[in-house]
Design goal:
The protein is mostly helical. The chain has one domain. The protein contains five helices and no strands. Helix 1 (4-28) runs antiparallel to helix 2, helix 1 runs antiparallel to helix 5 and helix 4 (81-110) packs antiparallel against helix 5 (117-147). The chain starts with a helix and ends with a helix. The mean pLDDT is 89. It comes from Sulfurimonas marina. Keywords: Membrane, Transmembrane, Transmembrane helix. This is Copper resistance protein D domain-containing protein. The chain crosses the membrane at residues 6-25, 45-65, 85-108, 128-147.
Length: 148
Amino acid sequence: MEFLIHFHLMAAMAWIGGSIFMFVLGVSLRDKSKQKEVYPNIGPIFGYFEIVSLVILLVSGILMADDKGLIYALLDGDTSPLGTVFFNKMMLVAFVILFTIIHFVVAFKTNGKCRTKLQNFLSRSSSLMVLFLNLVVLHYAIILRSML
């Protein structure tokens, strides 16, 4: 089971690195015409790439957590430092998934179309939340790994 950490790390690099790349792209492309050229082309490719990365993260994470007995600790309400760190990480992961779903639904529904103000707000705010939460999840992953 130790080989799973390599898949998990590669997927995490792709997932978090992709979020950072898209954030930098969004900040640097101020011109609306350039955004309309870039996002409809790169968005779907990036989206599918990120979905694959997220699935690998979830599957490898579940398998590693099961191997280390962390799933049972989570279900039993373990309040040890390890149990607490794992619980916090899983709560953050749940929010990452929620905000990712919101972002993907809006992004795929409106790709190449004009967005309403609500759709723009949902897309941008959920994307920003995913980026921020990714960094916090990474922090908890480092703590968790040092505890194991």
